[in-house]
User: What shape does this take?
Amino acid sequence: LVAKTASVQTKWQSPQSATRLAGSMVTLYEQLQAKFSRDDHGHYIFSPVFLTQWCHSLLRYNLQECEVLEAWADAARRVFQDSLVGQHSADFEVMLMAILRSDWSFNAHPDGMLFTSLVPVEKSAATNTHGQ
Assistant: This one.
């Protein structure tokens, strides 16, 4: 994240920004787990794998051309909100916007205004995926 944005978005040059963003991710994930459960809908099983999917999905965005927090919010919507039913989807959006405002003083576009497509992953990021 830091390497992909450093030349364009100066606030992401610091590793502390990535750490802070990860903290926001965990906060949203924990709120999601607390609010939505299998008791609501049988498919509401949110495991830490969702955090990994969210992180990996950020690699699909051209972070040189879009705001990192917009990409971050859009990726969260694709990983989590797309599986929520009815009012729960709107409740998730409220949680997401609240974290962006409180942690980052940032107002993201509601309803996912970003378009994503598959982009090639750099060889260094694609190799050594299993600690080898």
